[in-house]
Amino acid sequence: MRSGIKNLFLAFILTVGYFFNSYSQETENVMIVIIDGARYSETFGDPSHQYIPEMYELSNQGTIIHNFYNDGVTYTSRAIPALWCGAWTEVRDTLYNGSWTNYAVMPTLFEYYRKQKNQPAEECYYVLKYIPDLWLPSFDPDYGPDYWPEFQSMGSTDNDVAYQTEYVMDNFHPHFLWVYLADVDHAGHSGVWSEYTEAIINADQIVGQLWDKIQSDPFYANKTTMIVTNDHGRHDPQHGGFSGHGCGCEGCRHIQFLAIGPDIKVNNNTNQYRTIPDMAVTASHLLGIDPEKATGQVMHEILNSNSISEHNSKTSIVKIEKIYPNPFKQNTRIIYQLNGNKQVLLKIYDFTGNKIKTLVNEVQTAGVKEVDWDGSDNNGIILDSGVYPFTLKANNTIIYDKLIIIK
Ligand SMILES: [Zn+2]
Ligand SMILES: [Zn+2]
Questions:
Q1: Are 256 and 328 in a shared domain?
Q2: Residues 6+ apart with CB under 8 A from 163
Q3: Taking ligand 2, which is a single-atom ion, which protein residues have CB atoms under 5 Å away?
Q4: Which of 12, 159, 193, 291 lies in the 20 to 30 Å Cα band around 331?
Protein backbone atom coordinates (compact mmCIF):
# COMPACT_ATOMS: atom_id res chain seq x y z
CA MET A 1 0.00 0.00 0.00
CA ARG A 2 2.71 2.43 0.98
CA SER A 3 4.76 1.73 -2.10
CA GLY A 4 1.57 2.09 -4.17
CA ILE A 5 1.08 5.58 -2.76
CA LYS A 6 4.73 6.33 -3.37
CA ASN A 7 4.44 5.22 -6.98
CA LEU A 8 1.32 7.32 -7.39
CA PHE A 9 3.22 10.29 -5.98
CA LEU A 10 6.10 9.61 -8.35
CA ALA A 11 3.71 9.41 -11.31
CA PHE A 12 2.12 12.68 -10.21
CA ILE A 13 5.46 14.45 -9.95
CA LEU A 14 6.57 13.14 -13.34
CA THR A 15 3.30 14.27 -14.90
CA VAL A 16 3.61 17.71 -13.37
CA GLY A 17 7.19 17.82 -14.58
CA TYR A 18 6.11 16.91 -18.07
CA PHE A 19 3.52 19.65 -18.21
CA PHE A 20 5.90 22.20 -16.72
CA ASN A 21 8.26 21.53 -19.57
CA SER A 22 5.69 21.42 -22.33
CA TYR A 23 3.83 24.64 -21.51
CA SER A 24 4.95 27.88 -23.02
CA GLN A 25 3.92 31.45 -22.38
CA GLU A 26 0.43 32.49 -23.33
CA THR A 27 1.06 36.22 -23.50
CA GLU A 28 0.94 37.46 -27.08
CA ASN A 29 0.37 41.15 -26.34
CA VAL A 30 1.59 43.52 -23.65
CA MET A 31 0.10 46.81 -22.48
CA ILE A 32 2.12 48.92 -20.08
CA VAL A 33 0.32 51.78 -18.34
CA ILE A 34 2.37 54.43 -16.56
CA ILE A 35 0.52 56.63 -14.07
CA ASP A 36 2.89 59.53 -13.55
CA GLY A 37 3.60 60.48 -9.95
CA ALA A 38 1.07 58.53 -7.91
CA ARG A 39 2.42 57.86 -4.43
CA TYR A 40 2.10 54.29 -3.10
CA SER A 41 0.34 55.58 0.03
CA GLU A 42 -2.61 56.62 -2.17
CA THR A 43 -2.64 53.43 -4.28
CA PHE A 44 -1.97 49.92 -2.96
CA GLY A 45 -0.40 51.30 0.21
CA ASP A 46 -3.78 52.64 1.33
CA PRO A 47 -5.63 49.78 3.08
CA SER A 48 -8.99 51.30 2.09
CA HIS A 49 -8.02 51.46 -1.62
CA GLN A 50 -10.49 54.34 -1.79
CA TYR A 51 -8.83 55.99 -4.80
CA ILE A 52 -8.14 52.79 -6.76
CA PRO A 53 -11.25 50.57 -6.55
CA GLU A 54 -10.81 49.30 -10.11
CA MET A 55 -7.15 48.33 -9.77
CA TYR A 56 -7.82 46.78 -6.38
CA GLU A 57 -10.53 44.63 -7.92
CA LEU A 58 -8.29 43.72 -10.86
CA SER A 59 -5.56 42.67 -8.44
CA ASN A 60 -7.73 39.66 -7.51
CA GLN A 61 -6.96 38.37 -11.00
CA GLY A 62 -3.29 39.35 -10.93
CA THR A 63 -0.24 40.18 -8.84
CA ILE A 64 0.67 43.21 -6.73
CA ILE A 65 4.28 43.83 -5.74
CA HIS A 66 4.20 45.73 -2.47
CA ASN A 67 7.88 46.62 -2.38
CA PHE A 68 8.28 48.15 -5.82
CA TYR A 69 10.63 51.13 -5.87
CA ASN A 70 12.19 53.83 -7.95
CA ASP A 71 15.80 53.11 -6.98
CA GLY A 72 17.31 55.87 -9.09
CA VAL A 73 16.23 59.42 -9.81
CA THR A 74 12.67 60.36 -8.82
CA TYR A 75 12.19 62.83 -11.66
CA THR A 76 10.01 61.99 -14.65
CA SER A 77 12.72 62.87 -17.16
CA ARG A 78 14.99 60.13 -15.82
CA ALA A 79 12.51 57.59 -14.51
CA ILE A 80 10.47 57.27 -17.71
CA PRO A 81 13.56 56.40 -19.79
CA ALA A 82 14.54 53.90 -17.07
CA LEU A 83 11.13 52.28 -17.42
CA TRP A 84 11.64 52.14 -21.20
CA CYS A 85 15.16 50.70 -21.05
CA GLY A 86 15.08 48.35 -18.08
CA ALA A 87 18.09 50.28 -16.82
CA TRP A 88 19.00 53.69 -15.44
CA THR A 89 20.09 54.99 -18.78
CA GLU A 90 21.96 58.19 -19.37
CA VAL A 91 19.74 60.84 -20.97
CA ARG A 92 21.19 63.37 -23.40
CA ASP A 93 19.97 66.55 -25.08
CA THR A 94 19.65 66.64 -28.83
CA LEU A 95 18.35 68.86 -31.59
CA TYR A 96 15.82 66.74 -33.44
CA ASN A 97 13.60 67.92 -36.30
CA GLY A 98 14.48 71.51 -35.43
CA SER A 99 13.76 71.51 -31.70
CA TRP A 100 15.58 70.51 -28.55
CA THR A 101 14.60 67.38 -26.70
CA ASN A 102 16.11 64.40 -24.81
CA TYR A 103 16.91 60.88 -25.84
CA ALA A 104 17.76 57.70 -23.96
CA VAL A 105 21.30 56.49 -24.57
CA MET A 106 20.43 52.82 -24.02
CA PRO A 107 18.03 50.97 -26.33
CA THR A 108 14.40 50.86 -25.24
CA LEU A 109 11.95 48.00 -25.00
CA PHE A 110 10.30 49.29 -28.19
CA GLU A 111 13.54 48.95 -30.10
CA TYR A 112 14.34 45.48 -28.75
CA TYR A 113 10.83 44.38 -29.59
CA ARG A 114 10.70 45.72 -33.13
CA LYS A 115 14.18 44.59 -34.11
CA GLN A 116 14.22 41.16 -32.49
CA LYS A 117 10.67 40.31 -33.54
CA ASN A 118 11.04 42.01 -36.92
CA GLN A 119 7.90 44.05 -36.28
CA PRO A 120 6.72 47.15 -38.12
CA ALA A 121 6.01 50.35 -36.16
CA GLU A 122 2.24 49.68 -36.27
CA GLU A 123 2.81 46.74 -33.91
CA CYS A 124 4.28 48.98 -31.22
CA TYR A 125 2.35 52.07 -30.12
CA TYR A 126 3.21 54.70 -27.55
CA VAL A 127 0.05 56.59 -26.63
CA LEU A 128 0.27 59.87 -24.72
CA LYS A 129 -1.14 63.38 -24.71
CA TYR A 130 0.06 65.90 -27.28
CA ILE A 131 3.66 66.88 -26.53
CA PRO A 132 5.46 69.06 -29.08
CA ASP A 133 8.99 67.81 -28.40
CA LEU A 134 8.68 64.14 -27.48
CA TRP A 135 11.44 62.53 -25.46
CA LEU A 136 13.08 60.07 -27.77
CA PRO A 137 14.24 56.46 -27.60
CA SER A 138 17.85 55.68 -28.44
CA PHE A 139 20.21 56.28 -31.33
CA ASP A 140 22.09 53.10 -30.40
CA PRO A 141 23.89 51.86 -33.54
CA ASP A 142 22.35 48.37 -33.17
CA TYR A 143 18.84 49.73 -32.65
CA GLY A 144 17.81 53.39 -32.97
CA PRO A 145 15.17 55.29 -34.99
CA ASP A 146 14.42 52.41 -37.37
CA TYR A 147 12.93 50.58 -34.38
CA TRP A 148 11.18 53.39 -32.51
CA PRO A 149 7.49 52.96 -31.68
CA GLU A 150 4.64 54.68 -33.44
CA PHE A 151 3.81 57.70 -31.28
CA GLN A 152 0.12 58.54 -30.88
CA SER A 153 0.53 61.92 -29.17
CA MET A 154 -2.87 63.62 -29.12
CA GLY A 155 -5.22 65.49 -26.80
CA SER A 156 -4.41 66.98 -23.43
CA THR A 157 -5.93 64.83 -20.68
CA ASP A 158 -5.77 61.26 -19.45
CA ASN A 159 -9.28 60.75 -20.82
CA ASP A 160 -8.02 61.82 -24.25
CA VAL A 161 -5.20 59.30 -23.94
CA ALA A 162 -7.68 56.56 -22.98
CA TYR A 163 -9.78 57.42 -26.00
CA GLN A 164 -6.74 57.37 -28.29
CA THR A 165 -5.61 54.03 -26.85
CA GLU A 166 -8.95 52.46 -27.69
CA TYR A 167 -8.81 54.04 -31.13
CA VAL A 168 -5.36 52.53 -31.74
CA MET A 169 -6.50 49.13 -30.45
CA ASP A 170 -9.57 49.15 -32.69
CA ASN A 171 -7.77 50.31 -35.81
CA PHE A 172 -4.29 48.80 -35.61
CA HIS A 173 -4.38 46.02 -33.01
CA PRO A 174 -0.73 46.44 -32.03
CA HIS A 175 0.82 43.63 -30.02
CA PHE A 176 2.67 46.08 -27.81
CA LEU A 177 1.11 49.21 -26.31
CA TRP A 178 2.61 51.76 -23.93
CA VAL A 179 0.09 54.15 -22.36
CA TYR A 180 1.29 57.22 -20.50
CA LEU A 181 -1.10 59.04 -18.15
CA ALA A 182 0.28 62.41 -16.99
CA ASP A 183 -2.59 63.99 -15.06
CA VAL A 184 -1.90 62.63 -11.56
CA ASP A 185 1.49 64.29 -11.46
CA HIS A 186 0.13 67.62 -12.70
CA ALA A 187 -2.68 67.51 -10.17
CA GLY A 188 -0.20 66.66 -7.42
CA HIS A 189 1.92 69.68 -8.27
CA SER A 190 -1.15 71.90 -7.89
CA GLY A 191 -0.91 71.25 -4.15
CA VAL A 192 -4.68 70.71 -3.97
CA TRP A 193 -5.24 67.34 -2.34
CA SER A 194 -8.67 66.75 -3.85
CA GLU A 195 -7.36 67.44 -7.37
CA TYR A 196 -4.57 64.93 -6.80
CA THR A 197 -6.83 62.19 -5.47
CA GLU A 198 -9.47 62.81 -8.14
CA ALA A 199 -6.80 62.38 -10.81
CA ILE A 200 -5.84 59.04 -9.26
CA ILE A 201 -9.50 57.98 -9.21
CA ASN A 202 -9.75 58.91 -12.88
CA ALA A 203 -6.56 57.07 -13.85
CA ASP A 204 -7.83 54.06 -11.93
CA GLN A 205 -11.07 54.08 -13.90
CA ILE A 206 -9.09 54.29 -17.13
CA VAL A 207 -7.08 51.22 -16.14
CA GLY A 208 -10.32 49.32 -15.47
CA GLN A 209 -11.74 50.52 -18.77
CA LEU A 210 -8.63 49.48 -20.71
CA TRP A 211 -8.66 46.03 -19.14
CA ASP A 212 -12.34 45.66 -20.10
CA LYS A 213 -11.40 46.73 -23.60
CA ILE A 214 -8.65 44.11 -23.74
CA GLN A 215 -10.93 41.36 -22.55
CA SER A 216 -13.77 42.33 -24.91
CA ASP A 217 -11.64 42.21 -28.09
CA PRO A 218 -10.94 38.66 -29.31
CA PHE A 219 -7.54 39.80 -30.60
CA TYR A 220 -6.48 40.70 -27.05
CA ALA A 221 -8.72 38.69 -24.71
CA ASN A 222 -6.92 36.14 -22.50
CA LYS A 223 -3.60 36.61 -24.29
CA THR A 224 -2.63 40.09 -23.14
CA THR A 225 -0.65 41.06 -20.07
CA MET A 226 -1.23 44.51 -18.59
CA ILE A 227 1.30 46.10 -16.25
CA VAL A 228 0.47 49.28 -14.32
CA THR A 229 3.20 51.18 -12.53
CA ASN A 230 4.57 54.68 -11.84
CA ASP A 231 7.74 56.58 -12.61
CA HIS A 232 8.04 58.00 -9.08
CA GLY A 233 5.90 58.78 -6.06
CA ARG A 234 5.69 62.08 -4.19
CA HIS A 235 7.39 63.44 -1.07
CA ASP A 236 6.09 62.01 2.15
CA PRO A 237 4.85 64.53 4.76
CA GLN A 238 8.29 64.69 6.44
CA HIS A 239 9.97 65.74 3.18
CA GLY A 240 7.66 68.42 1.82
CA GLY A 241 4.41 66.58 1.15
CA PHE A 242 2.55 65.49 -1.93
CA SER A 243 2.90 68.66 -3.99
CA GLY A 244 6.47 67.80 -4.99
CA HIS A 245 8.85 64.94 -5.65
CA GLY A 246 12.44 64.36 -6.68
CA CYS A 247 14.29 63.26 -3.57
CA GLY A 248 15.14 59.88 -2.11
CA CYS A 249 12.41 59.83 0.54
CA GLU A 250 10.14 56.82 0.96
CA GLY A 251 7.22 58.74 -0.57
CA CYS A 252 9.19 59.59 -3.69
CA ARG A 253 10.63 56.11 -4.11
CA HIS A 254 7.78 53.77 -3.20
CA ILE A 255 5.51 53.12 -6.20
CA GLN A 256 2.84 50.67 -7.29
CA PHE A 257 3.18 47.57 -9.41
CA LEU A 258 0.16 45.65 -10.71
CA ALA A 259 0.27 42.97 -13.39
CA ILE A 260 -2.58 40.94 -14.80
CA GLY A 261 -2.62 38.47 -17.66
CA PRO A 262 -2.44 34.82 -18.68
CA ASP A 263 1.10 34.24 -17.36
CA ILE A 264 0.69 36.30 -14.19
CA LYS A 265 -0.11 34.66 -10.87
CA VAL A 266 -3.71 35.20 -9.80
CA ASN A 267 -4.67 36.88 -6.51
CA ASN A 268 -1.01 37.09 -5.62
CA ASN A 269 0.75 39.57 -3.35
CA THR A 270 4.51 39.62 -3.10
CA ASN A 271 6.77 41.57 -0.78
CA GLN A 272 9.97 40.88 -2.69
CA TYR A 273 11.95 44.10 -3.23
CA ARG A 274 11.83 45.09 -6.89
CA THR A 275 12.76 48.20 -8.79
CA ILE A 276 11.99 50.10 -11.98
CA PRO A 277 14.56 48.30 -14.22
CA ASP A 278 12.88 44.96 -13.44
CA MET A 279 9.64 46.06 -15.09
CA ALA A 280 10.88 46.29 -18.68
CA VAL A 281 13.00 43.16 -18.33
CA THR A 282 9.96 41.19 -17.15
CA ALA A 283 7.84 42.67 -19.94
CA SER A 284 10.61 41.63 -22.39
CA HIS A 285 10.47 38.12 -21.04
CA LEU A 286 6.72 38.04 -21.68
CA LEU A 287 7.25 39.42 -25.19
CA GLY A 288 9.92 36.79 -25.87
CA ILE A 289 12.76 39.24 -26.44
CA ASP A 290 16.20 39.72 -24.91
CA PRO A 291 16.82 43.26 -23.61
CA GLU A 292 20.55 42.70 -23.94
CA LYS A 293 21.74 46.00 -22.45
CA ALA A 294 19.21 46.19 -19.61
CA THR A 295 20.26 45.72 -16.00
CA GLY A 296 16.95 44.61 -14.44
CA GLN A 297 15.89 41.06 -13.59
CA VAL A 298 12.93 38.96 -14.66
CA MET A 299 10.48 38.94 -11.75
CA HIS A 300 9.79 35.21 -11.80
CA GLU A 301 7.81 35.43 -8.58
CA ILE A 302 4.91 37.09 -10.41
CA LEU A 303 4.79 34.51 -13.20
CA ASN A 304 2.98 31.20 -13.31
CA SER A 305 5.71 28.61 -12.90
CA ASN A 306 4.39 26.58 -15.82
CA SER A 307 4.54 29.54 -18.16
CA ILE A 308 8.09 30.65 -17.88
CA SER A 309 10.21 28.02 -19.53
CA GLU A 310 11.93 29.76 -22.37
CA HIS A 311 11.93 27.96 -25.68
CA ASN A 312 15.33 26.58 -26.44
CA SER A 313 16.48 27.50 -29.90
CA LYS A 314 19.64 27.45 -31.95
CA THR A 315 20.07 31.18 -31.58
CA SER A 316 19.75 31.18 -27.78
CA ILE A 317 22.82 32.48 -26.05
CA VAL A 318 22.31 29.66 -23.57
CA LYS A 319 20.34 26.45 -23.75
CA ILE A 320 19.92 23.41 -21.58
CA GLU A 321 21.06 20.23 -23.26
CA LYS A 322 20.19 17.73 -20.58
CA ILE A 323 19.36 17.35 -16.91
CA TYR A 324 20.11 13.83 -15.77
CA PRO A 325 18.82 12.19 -13.75
CA ASN A 326 15.74 14.26 -12.99
CA PRO A 327 13.97 13.38 -10.72
CA PHE A 328 17.01 12.29 -8.73
CA LYS A 329 17.90 10.83 -5.37
CA GLN A 330 21.50 11.75 -4.59
CA ASN A 331 23.05 13.66 -7.45
CA THR A 332 22.04 15.25 -10.73
CA ARG A 333 23.90 16.92 -13.57
CA ILE A 334 22.80 19.96 -15.57
CA ILE A 335 24.40 20.19 -19.01
CA TYR A 336 24.01 23.44 -20.89
CA GLN A 337 25.49 25.12 -23.90
CA LEU A 338 26.79 28.68 -24.01
CA ASN A 339 26.96 30.58 -27.26
CA GLY A 340 29.80 33.00 -26.48
CA ASN A 341 31.54 34.12 -23.31
CA LYS A 342 28.89 35.04 -20.77
CA GLN A 343 28.41 35.97 -17.15
CA VAL A 344 26.58 32.86 -15.92
CA LEU A 345 24.46 32.59 -12.81
CA LEU A 346 22.73 29.34 -11.85
CA LYS A 347 20.56 29.54 -8.75
CA ILE A 348 18.24 27.00 -7.16
CA TYR A 349 15.15 27.99 -5.23
CA ASP A 350 12.68 26.26 -3.01
CA PHE A 351 9.03 26.11 -3.98
CA THR A 352 8.23 29.34 -2.15
CA GLY A 353 10.87 31.23 -4.11
CA ASN A 354 13.65 31.44 -1.51
CA LYS A 355 17.10 31.05 -2.98
CA ILE A 356 18.73 27.98 -1.48
CA LYS A 357 21.85 27.35 -3.55
CA THR A 358 24.05 29.17 -6.04
CA LEU A 359 25.71 26.59 -8.28
CA VAL A 360 27.43 28.89 -10.78
CA ASN A 361 28.38 32.55 -10.56
CA GLU A 362 31.23 33.37 -12.95
CA VAL A 363 32.15 34.35 -16.47
CA GLN A 364 32.29 31.22 -18.62
CA THR A 365 33.62 30.67 -22.11
CA ALA A 366 31.55 29.35 -25.01
CA GLY A 367 30.84 25.63 -25.17
CA VAL A 368 29.11 22.81 -23.33
CA LYS A 369 29.16 23.11 -19.54
CA GLU A 370 28.29 20.63 -16.83
CA VAL A 371 27.41 21.29 -13.25
CA ASP A 372 26.53 18.74 -10.59
CA TRP A 373 24.19 19.19 -7.65
CA ASP A 374 24.00 16.84 -4.68
CA GLY A 375 20.69 18.22 -3.44
CA SER A 376 22.24 20.31 -0.67
CA ASP A 377 21.63 23.95 0.16
CA ASN A 378 24.25 26.68 0.64
CA ASN A 379 24.85 25.42 4.20
CA GLY A 380 25.51 21.87 2.99
CA ILE A 381 22.25 20.54 4.36
CA ILE A 382 20.71 17.81 2.18
CA LEU A 383 17.21 18.79 1.15
CA ASP A 384 14.01 16.78 1.36
CA SER A 385 11.96 15.44 -1.53
CA GLY A 386 10.38 18.20 -3.53
CA VAL A 387 10.37 20.36 -6.62
CA TYR A 388 13.24 22.86 -6.77
CA PRO A 389 12.99 25.54 -9.49
CA PHE A 390 16.19 26.96 -10.85
CA THR A 391 17.22 29.86 -13.06
CA LEU A 392 20.13 29.73 -15.47
CA LYS A 393 21.08 33.25 -16.47
CA ALA A 394 23.64 34.12 -19.15
CA ASN A 395 23.98 37.87 -19.43
CA ASN A 396 20.29 38.89 -19.67
CA THR A 397 18.87 35.65 -21.01
CA ILE A 398 17.20 33.54 -18.39
CA ILE A 399 16.06 29.94 -18.62
CA TYR A 400 13.75 28.61 -16.00
CA ASP A 401 13.43 24.93 -15.17
CA LYS A 402 13.20 22.69 -12.14
CA LEU A 403 14.89 19.82 -10.40
CA ILE A 404 12.99 17.16 -8.51
CA ILE A 405 14.35 15.28 -5.53
CA ILE A 406 12.70 11.99 -4.63
CA LYS A 407 14.07 10.21 -1.59
ZN1 LIG B 1 6.68 61.95 -13.21
ZN1 LIG C 1 10.75 63.04 -1.61
A1: no
A2: 155
A3: 235, 239, 247, 249, 252
A4: 12
